[in-house]
Here is the input.
Amino acid sequence: MKPSNRINQFGESIIREMTRHAHEHGAINLSQGYPDFDPPQVIVDAAVAAIRGGENQYTVTWGYPPLRARLAELYTPKLGRTLDPDVHVTVTCGVTEGIVVAMQAVANPGDEVLVLEPAHENFRPAAIMAGARAVPVPLTAPDYRLDYEMLASRVTAQTRALLINTPHNPTGRVFDEAEMAALIEVVTANDLVLITDEIYEHILYDGRVHVSPALHPALRDRTIVVGGLSKTFAITGWRLGFVFAPDALASGVRRMHDYITICAPTPLQAAAVAALDLPESYYTELTESYQQRRDTLLEYLAEADFRALTPEGAYYTIADYRGLSVPQARLNGMDFAMWMTRDVGVAVVPMSSFYSDPSLGEGSVRFAFPKKLETLRMAGERLLAIR
Ligand SMILES: Cc1ncc(COP(=O)(O)O)c(C=O)c1O
Here is the structure.
């Protein structure tokens, strides 16, 4: 009995593996990116009310109609094009499913899909599942900028799409105008589809604002935007995402979604309408609280002799551990992450797991900080005890 050839092209997720190690060793889990605090009470109440109120069967495959209507209303100005909830909007089981269906809808076997690296672990398998090949486009330390020459050099006759993520996990980069211009040039000159994962659109620092690449007129009809509610509303376990696809690709996205999951959980989609109705003050408080979390962790990391990157968005920081004055500073990333989990009591992810060539990520680990300040302080004290 042999598994498919396809499945042999990727292993299990190291991020999720680190969470299992964190549980096993009772470590503070700064590996996988999920909150240790509750979502807003109003949306929890809305979910309970939806279940009690009978919203327990499949929704229309494309998504609960009031949710699609609300998404279309909210994102029409953000994307600068009229989103028809009955054509362009599809509600998925998280961004994870959104990326899979987008990839399935655009890539043919043998196609190449450009993926910025370091990359969220799910991107490469999503390309492989579509029969395509993920071609890495490296963003390099210390500033992890998207470089035009590098991007253009990876395009071949087989390139079909470019998958990006901004704000970016794990670097915390928010691509600026010059990087966007490079991206637009490469995508349009080579007739590519752009797939953008914008799951961290509301988690930004130092007054930054999110601008979707799809807003640019040249990209409007060739961009699939994938967004989600996991991070913005601290509901990673609800599995809610959404896809906005242009006319030419919308039906394909919907058919893929139909046969992969039928629909996202109905009562939670109903509660998502309440989430999207939260006032502007919710988003102000969100950015303020994340700013505090980021700054708290960065202070501890600096004091503990980690060299950490200051993220512009998302909720991770990459930290180089090679300057620590303990023998473990010479371990490879995976062994260091295991030592941190087992002996220091703080679980992290080796940066090597974000690259198709793991050697590129050696010497640093990723810390996730969607945590209560008290959790981050407790983790910080453990880091200080390393010295
Ligand atoms: C860039 C990125 N995309 C997608 C996901 C997963 O999103 P979802 O929970 O909506 O499936 C994550 C989670 O960490 C992420 O960092």
Summary: The chain has two domains: 6-32+281-384, 41-276. The mean pLDDT is 96.
